[in-house]
Amino acid sequence: MILYTDEQTIADLGIFGRRHREGIFDLYNRTQTRGGESILKDMFLHPLSSREAISHRSSIIEHFSRLNSAFPFDAALIDATEKYIKEPGEQGSRARNQRALSDKDIQLGVLSVIAIIQRSKEFVEGDAVKGITAYATDRLAISALTGDAAFEPAFREKSNNKLSYTAVAAYDVLFRERERGKIEELLRYIYNLDAYLSVAKVAKERKFVFPKALDKGTGVLNLEGVYHPALQQPVGNNLFMHTGQQVIFLTGANMAGKSTFLRSVSTAVYVAHMGFPVAATAMEFSVMDGMYTTINLPDNLGIGASHFYAEVLRVKKVATELSQGKSLFIVFDELFRGTNVKDAQEATVAVSRAFAGRKTSKFIISSHIVEAGEALKQNNHIGFYYLPTRMNGHQPEYTYTLQQGITDDRHGMIIIRKEGILDMLKNPKS
User: Fold this and answer.
1) Domains of the chain from N-terminus onward
2) What SMART domains does the annotation carry (predicted)?
3) Which helix (H) or strand (E) holds 62?
């Protein structure tokens, strides 16, 4: 089961980098093979929505992280095998006078396949790997492939031994003609292992925590010390949402850190649904059916839609998904910023109240409109948090530390005056 999400959410969270800026994918990508990188990318594109599947993957990666396991293959070995195995054998569709591989390529390919078979068997037969219960299915499959009677001669070959022309030819027929499918299947398991070990290494180095997945519908999202993994000097925050609290209403002045906090929480929820470790000190969450964020929503000029109408369509999309009974994690940064303050306040209050009635979903809404928060205070299903600003003379300072309540901090004019904009406009240089 896959977590429902969309391109807007993936872009909001910066899952994949753009214009020389690293994405979340890049932070976790320590893969050694192209196949492993492709598997990892697919995991990022398709988070899970099954507690069992999430916990299963998480358990595998966590055990490898504790063992500090290294990828047991040289990248060059995998490259040589891929180049070799993708070409048809001499008895295949390619005629001898159309060979894509030289004799040297074939010999290198044969030796690479032999080494991979030997190392795969050695890896899965290690006591440490045998102790990873969640990896048992993959381990047994690799063991069955490498233990196939057809590959028995490969285990009699010694490393660095030269093979005769006759032996190379015999192995070539075995690997590229008779058992090509099994070699390709073994490579797929190796790619999966590469992805697991990549994430495990990141978890070890960065001290990321493995979240605990809870059943759908339990309505829990508990985060301790959550921060954005791309920050060099992050400030961790705590957020606790229980079964009776569906909505968080977040306030704070410009530059106080609201958008960064929303991305921090949303990234943790997204990555947790992949079964991956997150940038926090502790986390437990109820598994959701889907996740949608609206942090950097562009105008849809292609259909002549204003920013406000784009926001309306976004809320409509969420409402449609909710009407189908799905459990969703939803984030709106500055809801209805594209219209006047009065309309924005009324719409924010109405939509927030409607969201509060959805017991199995979770919503975080940030807003500059303090009055909307005041109107929502009587609703017990809504929690209120803010990111404070402290004034040091005329200089605003930001703690980036979440606090309970509503703030009416407004420092826009202070910043404008500090930058000297009004003076420039009043006294232009000749």
Assistant:
1) 31-206 (1.10.1420.10), 212-426 (3.40.50.300)
2) MUTSac
3) helix 51-67
